[in-house]
Design brief:
The protein contains eight helices and seven strands; from the N terminus they run ααααβαβαββαβαββ. The termini are far apart. The N terminus is likely disordered.
């Protein structure tokens, strides 16, 4: 059953979503587009009670949340494909401080072969992720109510979006990073030179990927990082 954002603006928003996905060359199916629209509706519904995001306007949610998250999907897919080429078939991703499921839920919809766990210290936000997984029939999506520092299950990719500074992000989540191949994917606005300079010893930026968000005139990038080691010394990011 499809949830409606609202009767008047739903078609316009769906068209904007489809146009944005096409601009990003994501090749989304109609089912995936519907899941993204249903996720937007769920986010609106739960936001009225649980304050999942400060953004209230559906149009702004589309550009600042959905399309912004979708801009990172193609880079994520390339990295997942590289891992598959190394024989790592079951890729596990941890989205830290996921809040309303951004970008974690979007990643789960667009990358069905990736097992996505969204961790948040706020119970109602983790419960929202669990509800989204049921409502959207996403068997690869899980909500985790915990502090990321307490997680020790290894993940191949650890992502975040507007969560914390890079030094805090990698320090808090380091115990959950699979060795030696695990990477961090941090979505940022402007290039965070000061944060990169303050990264702890042993953590290295191996690629900075500029992003273009359809309909949003703002700087965006992904900071890709890993633990520096002999195994990763010659790593080349897929492009």
């Amino acid at each position: 059953m499809t949830l409606a954002v609202n009767n008047n603006g739903n078609d316009t928003l769906r068209q904007q979503l489809q146009a944005g996905a096409e601009a990003l060359a994501l090749g989304l199916s109609e089912t995936q587009v519907t899941q993204l629209m249903d996720f937007l509706a769920l986010l609106q519904k739960w936001n009225k009670v649980y304050n999942l995001t400060a953004v209230r306007d559906p149009q702004e949610m589309m550009t600042h949340h959905l399309l912004d998250s979708l801009a990172a999907v193609a880079p994520l897919r390339r990295h997942v494909a590289a891992l598959a080429g190394e024989g790592r078939a079951a890729v596990r991703l941890l989205d830290v401080g996921s809040g309303g499921g951004l970008p974690g839920v979007v990643f789960a919809i667009c990358c069905p072969d990736v097992d996505v766990s969204c961790v948040d210290t706020v119970g109602k936000k983790a419960a929202f992720i669990q509800q989204a997984a049921v409502a959207l029939k996403l068997r690869n999506l899980h909500g985790v109510h915990a502090r990321v520092e307490t997680l020790t299950t290894p993940f191949d990719i650890i992502s975040c979006r507007a969560f914390a500074s890079l030094p805090d992000f990698v320090t808090w989540s380091r115990s959950a990073l699979a060795a030696p191949h695990g990477v961090w994917l941090a979505m940022k606005g402007k290039h965070p030179d000061d944060e990169i300079a303050a990264l702890p010893v042993g953590v290295q930026v191996f690629h900075v990927e500029q992003l273009t968000v359809p309909g949003l005139d703002a700087e965006r990038c992904i900071i890709w990082m890993h633990c520096r080691s002999a195994q990763m010394a010659d790593y080349t990011h897929p492009s």
